[in-house]
Every structure is written in C-alpha cells, then in structure tokens.
C-alpha cells in the first residue's frame, strides 16, 4: 500500500549534493525525505573521489620506493594488489558512516532506498511512498558516458563503477580518455605495476594551461605511461585469444592496434536523468543536464537541481556549494548566484594540477589585451629544493589593474596551495592582501605570496618609486 507524505523538502539522490541539502534542511528543522536507489554517498564515496585517491596514494608509495633519492636507495616495491584494493575499500568503509542512512535518520531525515520519479509537477514517487513537497531537489549525479565505438558494446570494458571491484591487477590497461579520470587512474595503475596506455582524442587535460600540463606529461612519460594524444578509437575487438581487448585507433601516424588486458572508459560523464520522468513535471533538460537558473531553479519553480546533474561542473565541492546555495535561497530567501562561484579544480596526478578561475588562454579570450601573467617556478622555492622535487610552477593571471582572473599551480601538493587563491577570489580580496600576508618559511605555499609580489615588483622598484624614496630620504 502506498504511503503519502507531505514534507518541506524532497531530495532525490544521496550523493555529495543531495546529502548536503538533506543535512542542512533537516538541521534547520524542516521535514525532509531523501530517496536513494543505490549506495548512500553516491559516486564520490563509492566509485569516485574516495577510492581513486586511496588508489593514487598506494601508487605514490610505490613510486617513492622506486625513485627514492636524497641519499636513500631506490628499491622495486612488492605490490600486493589485493592489499591495495583492501586499503581502497577500508577507506570507503571508514568514511561511509558520515553518509550513512543511520546518520541521516539520526538527523531526522526519512530515507527511502528506492528509485524516485516524478508523477506530476509536485509529486515524487518511489518504493511504496508518494511525496508531496514544498521543494524538490534533484541531485541524481552523473554516470560514465560510453562513446559509440563499434564493437565496444560487446566487450567487458571497465568504468569508474566497476574498476574498484577488480580483484586481479590489470597487466596492460588501456585508458580511453585523458581527462582527470584517465590521467589520475592511468598514472596510479602504471605506478602499481600495470602497463598503461592512455588514448586521448585531443590533448590530455585539454582544459588546463598547456605549460602546466607539460609538467604532468613529462612525469607520466617518465613513469612509463604510453601517451597517445590526438588519437581516436575507431573500433574495439576481443583479442584473438579472447584474453583481452584490442582498440583500433587512428592517430597522427595513421591507424594502429592497441592490445590490452583491460579497457577503462573515461571519456566524460552523462547526467543521470533517465527514469525520472522529468517531462511529467515540466522540467527542461538536455544532454548536458537539467537546465537551471542562477538560483539553481529548474523550469518547474518548485524544483531545484544541484551537483553533476545540473550540468555546471562535476566536483564534490561544487555539489556541496550548490547545496548551500539552495539552503540560502529556497529556505532563507537570500539572493544567490550559481553563475558567479569561484570553483577550484584539482587533478590529483603527480604532480598535482590545480586551477581556479581563468587559465591564461581563457583570460586572453575574454579580456584581450587587458591581461597580465606572472609565472613562478618551484625551482626557485627553497622547500622544493630541500625536498629535491622542483617540478612545476604557478601562474597568476590578472587584469592590468590587478584583478585576479585565475591561478594555475602545478607541483607537489598544488591542491593544498590553491586554497588561498580560492579565498582570495571568493572574498574578492585585493592582491595586496596576499603580499601583506606573512607566509611561513620554507613552504611550497609561499608560491602564492611570491606570485602576488611579482605583480607589484615592476611598480615597486620603478624610477618613480626611487625618486619618491630619494625625496623622503632628504625630508627625514
Ligand atoms: C573516478 C572519479 C573521481 C572523482 N574524483 C573527484 C575528486 O577528486 N574531487 C571532486 O571534487 N570530484 C571528483 N569526482 C566527481 C564527483 O564524484 C562528483 O562531482 C560528485 O559525486 C557529484 O555529486 P552529486 O551529488 O551530484 O552526484 P552523485 O554523487 O553521483 O550522487 C547521485 C546519487 O543519486 C542516486 N540516484 C540517481 N538517480 C536516482 C533516482 N531516480 N532515484 C533515487 N536515487 C537516484 C545515485 O544512485 C547516486 O547515489 C570524481 C568522479 C569520478 C567518477
Ligand atoms: N580530481 C577531480 O576533481 C576529478 C577527478 C576525476 C573526475 N572529476 C570530474 O569528473 C569529470 C569527468 O572526468 P573525465 O576524465 O571522464 O571526463 P572529461 O570530460 O574531463 O575528459 C574526457 C577526455 O576524454 C576525451 N575523449 C572523449 N571522447 C573520446 C574518445 N572517443 N576517444 C578518446 N578520447 C576521448 C576528451 O577529449 C577528454 O579529454 C571531470 O571533468 C571532473 O569534473 C574530477
């Protein structure tokens, strides 16, 4: 028998976005229903950020052993793949209680483990429950896009949803797609001892600053990854002995065959809108996701969309930011603007590549001549020298008046050093705030202050300043 609930907020999807909405709304005293058809925690916890970072950490350990240096002898590490995967799953299990049904029920949320869909403009149904809500939030995320490559459908290819279930280490892993997923996981598997080939239709990490990508590329090549840029997959076949896969590709040198024991498809994501019956609720959507305005409202004014499904970027921290915009707008009525968020992104390869705002190329396209770029290399950072790892650089992109348009950092722990720029951009701080900050020495984080300092250097040590100093000297 169907139970009917009337609530304040109905959330569909218990991933990064949906859980943040549900927790926020419930803790503010609202009645909340949360539908989840799969695992609590969604992609990030179960098939995305968490397992991938755990795997990358194991790959990093293997790499450190193999390369050591600074007077420490390198050794070829013994990789116990089953133990590595046990670490991956232990990490998921350790974090899982934060996203669990128990925790959310403890917060007062009614959690329904079922597929949800719209029955009409104001009703959501799932399992044995019909929900009428003042506000509905769609937070159904995204899934790996599978390209229409002839033969692929007949192969046991991997995606992020199946990769972390592997019990045997791939001997030779073909990674289709050189975006963040392909590069992060490709490098991790190579370092764990698999042979990895990355097949990329354009350039790897094509959205990022080419100078920064070159640093990552050099490391991937040094690790032994076989990088095939500007290479398109034309067909896929089972290998002659049926023990693996063969990808027939067209690259700069013409057509060739790449054989592998496994194939990982990582060519982007498709919004999870299937089976929601969005049309019954009058919700406009397309291949990029559900269309939303700057308050994340869909074409049905009762319904909002947050996270990957909103087609505005695919990051856990962005889904979280969307959730907080929803709470501010829909619950407190405050004005919000999802188009104006300063969203950092980090690819957790080694060295890490972190960006916020415009790259240099994007800034030049948007601002023409009104662009200044300062570049500082880790080869001039004392901590990097002490650690014997001077790979990488930072780039600060501003207008000629000093408005920060974007920052790119590539280097060890770059993801931790982009935070200060995320604060600077979200709080719209002046560059002088960065030079006025005392940065502890010696840290890689000093790169932020150095970049800002470089921006002022020409004006500070100019003839005009010298003249002022000379006048002040005589007045003193
Ligand atoms: C390999 C990989 C690595 C990643 N690494 C990072 C990283 O390091 N940092 C980062 O910021 N981002 C990373 N991401 C991206 C990040 O995982 C996503 O941006 C994030 O999970 C999006 O959250 P979400 O809430 O929008 O969707 P999801 O986490 O996908 O959650 C959506 C939930 O909705 C459920 N659902 C769908 N349809 C229905 C329905 N009809 N009824 C009920 N439930 C439904 C799904 O089962 C799912 O649990 C990574 C992604 C991948 C694939
Ligand atoms: N560290 C992180 O924050 C992190 C990590 C992983 C994923 N993510 C999120 O997930 C999203 C999806 O990642 P992704 O790497 O799957 O997608 P992506 O869209 O970022 O990159 C996919 C790559 O595959 C290439 N490609 C597309 N079709 C191809 C084909 N047929 N043959 C060869 N190459 C092809 C594209 O040129 C592109 O470079 C990311 O954009 C990011 O938002 C974030």
TrEMBL record:
Disulphide bond pairs: 44-49
Residues in Pyridine nucleotide-disulphide oxidoreductase dimerisation domain copies: 343-447
UniProt keyword list: Disulfide bond, FAD, Flavoprotein, NAD, NADP, Nucleotide-binding, Oxidoreductase, Pyruvate, Redox-active center
Protein name: Pyruvate/2-oxoglutarate dehydrogenase complex dihydrolipoamide dehydrogenase (E3) component
Classification via SUPFAM superfamilies: FAD/NAD(P)-binding domain, FAD/NAD-linked reductases, dimerisation (C-terminal) domain
A GO molecular function held by the record: NAD(P)H dehydrogenase (quinone) activity
Cofactor binding description: Binds 1 FAD per subunit.
The organism of origin for this protein: Brevundimonas variabilis
Amino acids binding FAD: 53, 140-142, 308
Positions in coiled-coil regions: none
Binding site for NAD(+): 177-184, 200, 268
Cofactor: FAD
The keyword Transmembrane belongs to this UniProt entry's keyword annotation: no
Protein family: Belongs to the class-I pyridine nucleotide-disulfide oxidoreductase family.
Pfam family, one: Pyr_redox_2
Domain FAD/NAD(P)-binding positions: 8-323
